[in-house]
Specification:
By secondary structure, this protein is mainly α. The chain has one domain. Helices cover 82% and strands 0% of the residues. The protein has helices at residues 2-57, 61-70, 81-103, 113-134, 143-180. Helix 1 packs antiparallel against helix 2 (61-70), helix 2 (61-70) runs antiparallel to helix 5 (143-180) and helix 3 packs antiparallel against helix 4 (113-134). The N and C termini lie far apart (97 Å). Mean pLDDT is 85; it is low at 177-181.
């Protein structure tokens, strides 16, 4: 009888210790997998840019603009700070490609307010991403970390809308060019 009582007391203690040990081991095991997923997602965005470059060379600007629009990588990087820096440089390259598309439109005065808006949103996103990565050692339910996650999601939504607006502006301007010629 006393053995059964001891067993009833020790089994929950052993399960609690096992759960605690798994919780301690989970983060180091999950982080490399999450970093790999982030890198793969970023590689897909880079592949879209390569496809868009090929389309720009073939003078298929509408399809190229659609690929450039989908090449923006607006994910929240949680594991690898190097990916966040690569994404920031990637976005700079995308903006320069979009600006070169606008410059290729002859005899048009192009006012791309959306380009400035996208640039501002991406700069703010890079700052928030750096702050978020500095807080990654904090608990998942930390108030500042949760606030930054919400702000990054809102920024991604706003940036997607601004990119769509920018691409739509470029498509309208390039269609006007074709109609004039």
């Amino acid at each position: 009888m006393s053995t059964a009582i001891v067993a009833l007391v020790l089994v929950p203690v052993a399960l609690a210790l096992l759960a605690g040990l798994l919780a301690l081991l989970a983060r180091p095991l999950v982080e490399p997998a999450m970093a790999g997923l982030e890198r793969a997602r970023f590689r897909r965005a880079v592949a879209r840019v390569a496809r868009a470059d090929a389309l720009l060379q073939a003078r298929q600007s509408e399809a190229a603009l659609r690929d450039l629009e989908s090449a923006f990588c607006l994910m929240t990087v949680r594991a690898d700070a190097r990916v966040a820096e690569q994404i920031s440089r990637h976005h700079t390259g995308l903006l320069s490609r979009l600006l070169s598309v606008a410059d290729d439109i002859p005899h048009q005065r192009v006012r791309l307010l959306a380009l400035a808006k996208v640039d501002r949103l991406l700069d703010r996103r890079a700052e928030m991403q750096r702050a978020y990565l500095q807080l990654r050692s904090r608990p998942l339910r930390d108030g500042r970390r949760l606030q930054l996650e919400r702000e990054l999601r809102r920024n991604a939504r706003d940036a997607r809308a601004a990119v769509r607006e920018l691409v739509a502006d470029l498509l309208v301007i390039s269609a006007r060019k074709v109609a004039v010629q």
